Amino acid sequence: MVADSIINALRNTLGEGNFPLHEPRFAGNEQNYVQECIASTYVSSVGAYVDRFERELAAYTGARRAVAVVNGTAALQVALQLAGVQVNDEVIVPALTFVATANAVQYLGAVPHLADSEEATLGLDPRALRDWLKSVAEPTGDAYRNRQTGRRLRALVPMHTFGHPCDLEGLLAVAHDYRLPLIEDAAESLGSRYQSQHTGTCGLLGTLSFNGNKIITTGGGGAILTNDERLADHAKHLTTTAKLPHRWDYVHDEVGYNFRMPNLNAALGCAQLEQLPEFLASKRRLFERYQAALVEIDGVRLMQEPFGCESNYWLQTLVLSGAIADQRDGILQAINDAGLMTRPAWRLMHQLAPYQECPRAPLPVAESLAQRLINLPSSAGLA
Amino acid sequence: MVADSIINALRNTLGEGNFPLHEPRFAGNEQNYVQECIASTYVSSVGAYVDRFERELAAYTGARRAVAVVNGTAALQVALQLAGVQVNDEVIVPALTFVATANAVQYLGAVPHLADSEEATLGLDPRALRDWLKSVAEPTGDAYRNRQTGRRLRALVPMHTFGHPCDLEGLLAVAHDYRLPLIEDAAESLGSRYQSQHTGTCGLLGTLSFNGNKIITTGGGGAILTNDERLADHAKHLTTTAKLPHRWDYVHDEVGYNFRMPNLNAALGCAQLEQLPEFLASKRRLFERYQAALVEIDGVRLMQEPFGCESNYWLQTLVLSGAIADQRDGILQAINDAGLMTRPAWRLMHQLAPYQECPRAPLPVAESLAQRLINLPSSAGLA
Q1: Do B352 and A211 touch (CB under 8 A)?
Q2: Which CATH number does the domain housing residue A87 bear?
Q3: What's the domain range around B126?
Q4: Of the residues A80, A277, A315, B184, which has the maximum number of CB atoms within 10 A of its CB?
Q5: What residues of chain B lie within 8 A of the CB of A25, using their CB?
Q6: Residues B152-174: what's their mean pLDDT?
Q7: pLDDT the model gives residue A247
């Protein structure tokens, strides 16, 4: 049975014991920095670690600026607002994504417009999207609108699934032709590069997540990346209650958010970022070991970084062939029962109650992939 | 000059040196708990410290349940949603408050409706509110609406200014008569009691903040309090992405939020909460010392807990007489220049660009108070 073969392959790679899907690794300066942070009393909304974390994120990703915030969802909400998304606009997002991508759109009173993914990247398919927009988008003034709903198409949000960069070149061309700012949801892809450019830095804005399950963690946290200084300044302003600088007066010039990352969490992040190269190397080794162990099993392949890309291999992913897709739940059951935590991809957005009425393109690939993906234990340090 | 008299009084109380308005105090188990948290690897969205912090907050406040979240603004946003606030509703809030109170209403697409405060509590004045509602509210089905705007009046949100409980008995009566759920913004009043009942537990829901400037801090954090188990369960669900429990499947049954408090921050909170009784005692001593030092100065009084209440004395507050209100900025300048950080109350909500068009009651007391309040250095440990 294929489940037994997979379990054997995982055991050969990981050894005995129980393995979570992904756990954080604190092998560096975490304790030191956090202790120093508490001793300084600057644990909250301002502090040296926040500034340092932002500087080091910008330097690492090559973005001109990084703005640290409270989580990846908040980062995406603010990035969309900065890109001009307003109430009743439509924002194109993948159907195959974590629910936060759609939620960030919804928080602004806008509507997710769901698009299909491609097998090679697990991300938005630019060819399918172009075909769809040809049929559904019509020009209106300086923008395009959805002729079926009458709503303005306002942004394009690809997400780099499990750390694999999607086809940014193709998507940027579609975005250009349909006058859509491109905002990368790079929550899962810190360390991943598209043709040597870090994900999250290829569009107008990009967003990162440092939730506990991500490649590095700040407990909870996220960041907005951009090469536009003006947008970065506005992001900082909006995420810090939109308060104007004054020695004592409290003037807020727009509706802002309490979205800053606390200095305590940034202290953890600075220590984690120092170890990122090591985490990336470990995850790549784990990919190679899983690959060697799984290569002989019929009907499964291990997801590999797309051509021309460098993936962070955040979550290792089995792709089942169509022939055994109907065995997925049995496989999940057996592997989880063996103490190896695995999980399927998310439910597609249009299969969730709050998003079932959203406009959507045909989703044949996303619907197929959703039945065929299994994430494997992937923590840094396993190999 | 009155500024010099105040500076002398502050120096007699505090001694030499520079004093911030309010800094956190980490004199307990902060380092231990945070180190233990990191060592456990559970720094993020679940963990023993979150559960413990919620249990201990409930026990301390007497609320049946407490739900820890990412900050006080998020707590209020979710509490308002749970109370039934919807797009285009109006929510009654004080004009004299921190902008987050109004922002939380705005995030839901609802509209802040500003009401006046009273001199005795610095909080909403139930008599003025009742008079205003008599003129502006008209019954419609099972609710009241603002006859001037046609919008439904959907909730009443008093805020306990600088930790002083407002007149909850009077406000609960108004809320009852106008069928408004009452949600307490208790961001500033952890440790404050109204007739022996902890603030935040007297209405349908209440919210706390643990920002770095509050009486205890988690870096960034907040909590929702309620005596209604069903609302508490829903609060937990909404603030944790509305994901249904399942071994591996990702089903979200409504639009949720990524608002959980990270375990790392809860670890800090558990240590802080242990010291709250001591912080409260220190702040009360500081009040008494300031009171003794300031009592001889004409034209100023120190804000004292309202009758029948126990204030946490979070921020000590000078109230200038009307006769010297026009000297406020000069007084602030002189005291700040002397190294003693002081600040005025917030700009009133209708004086901020995003809220200047909001419906509002006459605001004579709030407008007067806003010119006459000065917060003094107030950290725990100063006395």
Answers
A1: no
A2: 3.40.640.10
A3: 30-274
A4: B184
A5: 41
A6: 98
A7: 85
CATH at B298:
3.90.1150.10
ipTM of the complex: 0.96
pLDDT of residue B248: 87
Q: What does the block give as tokens for A279?
A: 């985490």
Rounded mean pLDDT, B337-341: 97
Residues 51-110 of A with CB under 8 A from B: 70-74, 98-100, 103, 106-107, 109
Domain count, chain B: 2
In a domain, A382, yes or no: no
Q: What is the pLDDT averaged over residues A16-34?
A: 97
Query: Is the pLDDT score of B44 beyond 90?
Result: no
Asked if residue A203 and residue A187 are part of one domain, the reply reads yes
Interface test with B, best of A32, A34, A272, A331 (most B CBs within 10 A): A34
The conformational region for residue B69 under phi > 0 = left, psi -120 to 50 = alpha, else beta, is: beta
Q: Which of these, B284, B261, B253, lies nearest to B381 by C-alpha position?
A: B284
What is the mean pLDDT of the segment spanning A155-182? 98
pTM of the predicted protein model: 0.97
| A86 and A203 share one domain | yes
Tell me the average pLDDT of chain B. Answer: 97
Spatial neighbors of A78 by CB under 8 A, at least 6 apart, are A69, A224, A235, A238, A239, A257, A259
Q: Do residues B21 and B106 both lie within one domain?
A: no
Decide: helix, strand or coil at residue A107. helix
Element (H, E) at A65: strand A65-69
C-alpha A36/C-alpha A43 separation (Å) is: 10
Look at residues B224, B250, B274 and tell me which one is the last residue of a structural domain.
B274
